[in-house]
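pasting for ref
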Amino acid sequence: MPYDAVASVGRRHMEVLAAYLPQDRCRALARNAALPDRSAGAVLFADISGFTPLAETLAQTLGPRRAAEELTVHLNAVYDALIREVEVWGGSVIAFAGDAITCWFDADAGLHATASALAMQNAMTRFATIRVADGREISLVVKTSVVAGPARRFVAGDPAIRLLDILAGHTLERLAATAAVTKRGEVVLDESTAVALADQVEVRAWRSGAGPEGRFGLIERLARTVNAEAPARLASPAEELTRPWLIPDVYARLRAGLGEFLTELRPAVALFLKFEGIDDDDEAAGDKLNAFVCWIQRLLQPYEGFLLDLNVGDKGSYLYCAFGAPIAHEDDTRRALHVAAKLRRAPAEFPFLRTVQIGISRGTMRTGAYGGSTRRTYGVLGDDVNLAARLMEKATPGEVLVSGRIHEDCETDFD
């Protein structure tokens, strides 16, 4: 193979690996730099709705397995469109959670993040009507929320297993409150961000939320022209710097040249754990979180379960572990329950942990790589993932709540 062709293949391989990291993290690693623990900027949360009815309609017309593949085509097309608007305005996609993304715009008072959110709404017009095989039409819509303020940026995890990039702080709590009052097709800012941008955005209406966070501004448009950030070519760090940020089996498959895990339907178990006791303002918060995450990863390793997602907040943090994907076992339910029994009683080395609540469910999940071409993730998605999260919220401290399927699988082995 000619040298140019070999170099091109090598670059493409590095770009595929780099897509599993936030864009700003890639740039920092490429120049051998660290991102600051504390920074100020704006957070954008974009939540896509419509995929559940689309999935159900496709399953009815194409069958469940073909429907999963077709759904991912639509999912990736939407993410490509949205992530492009994040990058154009200088943002980075920090995390995926189901059909939503959380994005960070460093050193932004909220104007660029708001411009990105408005551009996302415009980009979604091409997905307003999706016609499936039987002629039915499904609409995909996004709701976007923006909050500006200080944030913490943590790196947690055993580099031999996987590192996680975590955005935390009070600004994320305000973002959650803002997202709670945001409706489909809207761009909403919290009051402090909207007031700070008073001469730069047009507020169509103000609305109140259920909590003490104040008012929220529904944005009509920008009040003046704002120039987008010229997107620099995303740098690809050296492979040895990228590897720790990928799930080991995902990296091994890509390294072997087998391509990404294709979307498939497979049985899997979802375990959600809520914990309290890590204060974002604590200077040692990053060290405490890292120690806890490393312990969980090492606990999961012999059971071949994977920590997929972690969210940190003052009002409670949660993590999501999956069993059965990307590696399947006949006894994934039992593996999850054995891990839960150990997680509910964290060792004495974590005295800061006040409460632990766990929810577990099993079902047929949609698994595989998804996202845009420049930012992707490996996901395990489905109704039972949502059920496990709801069970976690319903559990009392120290309690493990399981779904009916979990109970049927293991009622003779566990009380």
